[in-house]
Design goal:
This protein is of the alpha/beta class and 611 residues long. Helices cover 40% and strands 12% of the residues. It contains 22 helices and 17 strands. The longest helix has 25 residues. The structure holds cobalamin and iron/sulfur cluster. The site of iron/sulfur cluster has 8 residues, from loops.
Length: 611
Amino acid sequence: MTKTNLVLLHAPSVYDFRQESILYGPVSDVVPSTTVFEMYPIGFTTLAEHLERHGLRVRIVNLAVRMLNDARFDVEKQIRRLHPDAFGIDLHWLPHAHGAIEVANIVKKLHPRTPVIFGGLSATYYHQELMDYHAVDYVIRGDSTEEPLRQLMHCIIEGSEPDEVPNLTWRDGQGRVQVNPLTYSPETLDHLLMDYSYVVRAVARYRDLANFVPFQRWLGYPITAALTCRGCLHNCLTCGGSAQAFREFYGRAKPAYRSPEALAQDIRNIQRFSKGPIFVLGDIRQAGIEHAERFLKAIEGFDGQLMLEFFGPASRDFLQKLGKAAPNFVLEISPESHSEEVRRTFGRPYSNEELEDTIGYALEAGCQRLDLFFMIGLAKQTYQTVMGTVDYCDHLLRRFNKPAERTSYVHPFISPLAPFLDPGSLAFEQPEAHGYRLFHRSLEEHRRALLQPSWKYVLNYETEWMNRGEIVASTYEAGLRLNSIKARHGLVDRQRAEAVEKRIQKAIRLIRQIDDIVGIPDERRRKKLLTALKPQVDAANLSTVCDKRELELPLGLLKLDIPRAALLLLSDLVAKTTRGVRRAVSYPATEGRPRPDFVAEPPLDQGGDAP
Ligand code: B12
Ligand code: SF4
């Protein structure tokens, strides 16, 4: 059996979520993950693919999803039987501050001599502080770590010092922390394979789907993402992925784009194994309208469900072209607030008129569904402004949703900026200047905050216009109101709307009960009372201000076809090897002979990777 060189582990947000009684709140209502944030970074697939292309073996283990799916899943047992040269753990999203560090501690306890490598945007931001945790040996910084990771793996395997590896923070022989320059930041994404072919190969090779599943409901709703770029042109106030955050903290002066043709090919390749929707991440128009139109040309005739996000208004002409190229298109727009002042302060300087024109053009061009995302916790936003946003949703639904006439419709969502204001964002870096007050700043403070009994106390901020209590209260009230508006407009059926309403009411009661418990001075009594609440808290954690299924598009019967995809990949490889054709991206480590991709190895649960 070939040795695995690197195992990439994805931790749950709070490691002990199965034991702790924590009301996480609506922190993940508008993303596919649950409150455990079980989705691993898309970068796991590009890291794995890049390393495998250079002859290394990589395995992904999504601990978070395994723990969610099986209450008895034994993390330590799983990690004990893994024996790679190194473990990689993502700390991309700060809400993993607790889980990622805890998993690193477990790895170190069970494999004290195996290096632990951290990476991701939050790991980059907190790289120096991460070196204070004894379980962390290396942090690779930046948004593009494929090549630095390959070089580091080479050093680990050879036993040499990684002083030349770009973007690396590490400890030298004397235990001193070394910070190598953050110089590796490629200008495009065209050197990568971004079509999940690694995942399909690995699932077939290891006969192991369970560890690769990106989020809990994915097998029922296999939505897949295609990435247009790394970085961003914009500077939204609370975003840790803004242009200035990338410049200042992640070593990127300007976005790196995927070429339109490569992006279209990624999408077509994904369609070979999944008939689920494909979400094109990042506004395709960021690189300019000519770039976007090249994409439309390259994707012409695509008959799958294609979701695109727009960072601002679009012209009728562009939407018509989009409708012709990909007739089953769906749009996402985040106006954040109905208040033009709040929206402008956030960094989206367009009017409601422009927004509504865009909605009209999109529906006219055949957009099947247009999701609108509004947020709570913004600068200049009061409790009343939040309610004004809900009223505006009612107006939009009255204006655009005429079910008798249309097959397409508008679907609004409202959710809080939670659990954390992003480190690196303008609001996090200069809170007072933007009307924010921060409660936690360091990694350790965030790690501890994640163990607070309700999301009100986990929140790392409040604003001049709303304190934490008001952010929580306005979220629940907005949720209740929007839910009944959606029921009235037929966007959710009565039964689902009633269930959402009950869940919100329950969450409101629980928040109050937890507030009372938090005030009890005796710590043991506090703990006991919180533990007694756990079953109710778990039930309220499912989704709060909306039903997660509202995010989903109706699917046909055939959604996932991994065996077919594996066969297609295999036949591609055989054809290319026998014809001696080199791929656009070549495979240096295995040149001239077929890659051993389809030699099945035992799944981890059946002793795979044991020594
Ligand atoms: C796409 C995206 C998403 C997608 C994620 C798709 C996916 N599976 O990756 C969706 C919509 C699902 C999403 C959800 C969330 N997101 Co988001 N997202 C983005 C966005 C727009 C782009 C990210 C991106 O470009 N990724 C590409 C690159 C940068 O990352 P990558 O390829 O995955 O990984 C590379 C490196 O990060 C690193 N790396 C990552 N992991 C590891 C591990 C190791 C060992 C190593 C060595 C390297 C490494 O190497 C990789 C390859 O080179 C950014 C904003 C922005 N402009 O950056 C926000 C952003 C990353 N998201 C953010 C947040 C807060 C969230 C949520 C927590 C929001 C919420 N409350 O629901 C959730 C978390 C979901 C979960 N984990 O379950 C914040 C993070 C701030 C922070 N520091 O915590 C950002 C910066 C901005 C924002 N507010 O949206 N998000
Ligand atoms: S929120 Fe704004 S700054 Fe952040 S990724 Fe989206 S458009 Fe860019």
